Amino acid sequence: MLKVGDMVVRNSYGEDILFTVAGYRYNKGKMIYRIKGKCVRIEADAYEDDLIPVGKVRASQFTKYYDDILKNIKQKIKTEHKSNNNNMRSDGSILKRPGRVLHLDSDIEYLKQCKDFYNEFYIDVVGVEAKEEEQPRIVKDLLVKYKPDILVITGHDAMKKDAEDRMDYANYKNSMYFVEAVKMAREYEPSLDDLVIIAGACQSFYEALMEAGANYASSPERVLIHCLDPVIICEKIAYTDMRDIINASDVLENTVTGRDGMGGLNTRGKYREGMPGYSKNEIDKK
User: What whole-number distance in Å separates Cα of residue 80 and Cα of residue 103?
Assistant: First the structure.
């Protein structure tokens, strides 16, 4: 019997994705495991006989691929900040304020990874764990409370394996909730410049999310996205000067899954500078 935390691949899908066992249950005498993607935003159920345990050596081969991509992306971001003479933190002479973020996520483990990324780049973020079906109900109150510049709405999603109609909500696991959450957010703030919205998860209904009012969304080609793809886009917007408009193609090329996984609109940046500067860390200590 597999245990929670074990790493596995699925035989029926050609052992293409590394999963972690997140739970299990019995159904008509058969064991069904809930499995969660180690690197990509996917959650699924699988019968025990479809799962193949993976040892540490092979698991590291799966994770190294994404780790190398992320390492290059982070280095590129840091090089860009350095070339712009931006150390990302306010100092004695200049006050620096990147866009502030509200991040809704149905998965607490993915949310932690995302917050680690935000923190690495000194972006103020409020992270809220909320199931996909709860997000439309709570998003407006959270926007009123925190007044972010950028809203990220994500979690888990999936398109039916043999779906023929990509434009039918019935073929998606959670896209309808993401779409409703975007609509509620746009009731609060209709302007795509004043509130930037990044929405969706793996294989989400991209066209519906964009029509609902997202600036960026997943997934144009219904592929699995990396858990940090929305956050990478968020960082670019947060650190682009408010007087500048980001070309969508520029921001998408830095994501893990590229234009297949994420798409969107040219969007105004959220970064501001002023003077004199001060240390936010000193304020936080008080």
Answer: 24
Q: Is there a contact between 90 and 277 (Cβ–Cβ < 8 Å)?
A: yes
**Distance, CA of 277 to CA of 252 (rounded, Å):** 32
Query: pLDDT digit string (tens) for 206-220?
Result: 999 999 999 999 999
Helix (H, G, I), strand (E, B) or coil at 131: coil
The closest alpha carbon to 157, from 110, 198, 204, belongs to: 204
User: Cα(first)–Cα(last) distance of the chain, in Å?
Assistant: 51
3-state SS track over 206-249:
HHHHHHHCCCEECCCCCCCCECCHHHHHHHHHHCCECCCEECHH
Query: How does residue 264 score in pLDDT terms, banded at 50, 70 and 90?
Result: very high
Task: Give the tens place of pLDDT for each residue, 157-168.
Answer: 999 888 889 999
Predicted model pTM: 0.89
